[in-house]
Fold this sequence. Notes:
The complex is a heterodimer of chains A (about 375) and B (about 300). Helices cover about 35% and strands about 15% of the residues of chain A. Chain A has about 375 residues and is of the alpha/beta class. Chain B contains 11 helices and 14 strands. The longest helix of chain B is centred in the first third of the chain and has 19 residues, at about 50-70. The chains are: A alpha/beta (about 375), B alpha/beta (about 300).
Amino acid sequence: MIRSFFSSKPLPILGKGLLFLILLTLLQPNPVLISFGDPQTVETNHPIMAVHTRLTDEVEEWKIQRTLELVREMGATTIVELFPWAYYHAADGGIAWEHPDLVINHAHAQGLQIIARVGLTPDWARPPDTPLNYLDANSYADFATFTAAFAERYEGKVTHIIVGNEPNLSFEWGYRQATAVDYVQLLATVYPAVKAVNPDVMILGGALAPTIEPAGSPWGLNDLIYLDGMYAAGGADYFDGLAVHTYGFKFPPDSDPDPELLNFRRVELIRNIMLDYDDADTPIFITETGWNDHPRWTKAVRPGQRISYTLDAYRYAEENWPYVESMALWAFRFPAPTKSYMDYFTLVTPEFINKPIYDELKAYATGN
Amino acid sequence: MSACQHVSSLACQHISISSHCSIAPLPHRPIASSPHRSITPSPSDIQSHHPSLLILLLTILLTIGCRSQDNSFDLIAERGTLRVGLDPTYPPFEFDDGSSLQGIDIDLANAIGEELGVSIEFVWFGYDGLYDALGTRQVDVLISGMVIIPERQRDFAYSDPYFNAGELLVVREGETAVSAMRDLNGRSLAVELGAQGHVEATVWQKNLGDLTILPQETGDAALTAVLDSQADAALVDSITARLFLGRNVGLTAVANPVTVDPFVIVVNVEDEQLLDKLNESLESVTVSGQLTQIFAKWFK
Lengths: 368, 300
């Protein structure tokens, strides 16, 4: 029985609890001190290699750092990462920079180029009962203000900014009909605001979802039709590069492009539209690509195929697509398992176990 | 073209998962206690000095009340049909042979239907749309090789497991030296290149220090490597392993699975009566040996 030092009476419950808490505090390890350290030097033979990280919901700093170390050690030069406007920007104008500071400073310390995807609308900037993806013209200026502040703060570290994500999907456009004209208006608001404070940052437009949804579909609109609409609406004046999503699904990377089919070489159809509008000099940044090896997802391949298709895709892009500056695999690692086919896109598990595809990509990129 | 052909980065899904439901805080309980504390407080004492206790009691009573009012199975029994959602693209658990649905989950659903005294109506969906179909009550249950997703347990409930789809260690019959992964030091292990077994093997390789991993094109090739004595063991998912063992002699799976990935039946979280009935039925078909017979039928 625990007794107090000065009397033989048993300690009251409160005293025991207090003693326990004090002991617990003494036993608690010191907080881990994390420094940015020296930038990693990793020789890569394939600078096109990039990954889409998912650090938005990663809380612990050491996990952010470890993720980015692994990215760099693999030989990737670039990350694409989501920075949700809704997470940071309060109604009173205050911006919580702590988490983006962590991600961006650690990525910069690893010598990684950062393509920032900015989107998701705070509740104060959208009507009640609308989803996070809802952004209408009333709030374009607010979004531009935030994006400009972001670009100014991270000048020299964030080199590219993607405006929005997959606006050709109704879901990504707040469950509204997706129109290219609306999106171009958004670009036209954001572009000058960002350039005014950081002329060097590249604005990437598009990031369209690969889909063959016809006009009038409630789900979205064919990315080729949508891109054509963006150019027709004068969108080319408001982006320096085009962000492209292209997935291989069941097809190998050299499978011929076809407007009625979704495969890796859909990029070439997108490029043709750019050429139709005399926009040959605008580079493409593939900000989402890859194959999936879920055992039962209908668009998945076997794990071995995923490895060979991914490596072949890099080879194909490097040999045939001089206009593609970067190619990011979706997705490097999730903070926690999604317990769905999404887990089978990743290269590293939430527990930081490298999957075999990681090792193969590393061997390819670094020659080791 | 269906929405499934989109690949979205799911930013919003992730955010909705991580959002928190708001819970009204309980009234603050005063710390100072009366010197004449009553040992058996009167109801008025409870009301005045222990509002949180009162709320707790009310919550328990309400919960009991809600449970007793759940008649999810009664409604199904009245209708006479249990609507089962599934994606029949996953042999041998569920597939369409061109004329009808076949597989383990089909037989299991029918066995459960017999136990419950209802007929079974199968409703097809894409795998990605199964939870939406259940949530919008287009079906009563999902029996489709479903795994437990902790984040979904706010809206859905899972039955007791009926199959473990995790990784199995397979060795040659008569092999007595290998009964677990830890016995593989100094030995070779065949896996399917890039599959979960391969990932698991790399972890064990680091732990053991002297484990040779032999990646093969497919799970069957990994098992064949053991059969042909090119590897000491294979680590593959249990479906691949059990199908192979059903068709080939000379190999055996060690008793304990290396990883656990249970298949379960899914219901809406408020359908507790239905869940209880399903669990009773699962136990019944297990105890009677019917489930074993179903597995034996399809894993061959």
